[in-house]
Amino acid sequence: MIRVLVTDGIDKNASASLQEAGFEVVEEHYESEELKEKVKEFDAIVVRSATKVPKPKQE
Description:
The chain is α/β, with parallel strands linked by helices and 59 residues long. It contains two helices and three strands; from the N terminus they run E-H-E-H-E.
């Protein structure tokens, strides 16, 4: 199952549509530092303006 993290909230209908399509939707807000680690547990992330996704460091 594809896991989708929604960090800033979305319309209930949008969330329901994703779930009906077979996605696991997790609605949880994380601060930037914690988000760096948590995002590794998901296949996709849905953000709006409140969440700032840090650029990954080049190794």
